[in-house]
Amino acid sequence: MSHLPEKKLFFQNAANLLRPDGKLVVADWFKAEDLSNTQLEADIKPIEDGMLLPPLCTQSRYVQLAEDAGLKTFSAPFDISQNVAKTW
Known about the structure:
Blueprint: H1 7-17, H2 37-50, H3 59-68, H4 81-84
């Protein structure tokens, strides 16, 4: 999803397409919460530019977009990067 420029639209469409008992699991690249401008410029901007990404979101932003679209959160976000590090 990190390549999608309209993440709000993604969550709206997911809410419309899922069955009432359906589940959506999201695994994506996220930026950390509360990064300074220096950190954004030094660490995040090169990733966004190098991978031709729109601005990366935080996990909490995805949760907010999902809830705004009418989806319910049944698990708090958590970091799986150590479990998938060898795959990227």
